[in-house]
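Trying the structure run again after the queue cleared.
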Amino acid sequence: MVERRKSVRSRCLLGGRVVFNARSSTMSCNLRNFSEGGALLRFGEMPYVPGELEVVLNNRSTLIPAQVRWRRGEMAGVAFPRGRFLRELREDAAKGIAEGAPAGVAVH
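Done. Tokens:
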């Protein structure tokens, strides 16, 4: 298998939601891994998810724009604007929301 990612992915288990349809629709998801430019989202089921959406982590209010790059079963790979997701995650860690937080967020 040829690795096409430009940056290394880190495993994680982050709860969140995707927001779409002019911010009138949401769906729960878990982020299973992430990198500087994207993430793997896992849904309970995979109904229609549009190509353009926003991701918001639990305990956060910032919506991060994303584009769906692929879909497979209950999973979807999304791309973020360069570095945007990592900045949000670092801010969370600095505030104690991410790594080791009691809110159920775990980053490996």
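The chain has one domain: 10-95. Worth checking whether this holds up in the mutant runs.
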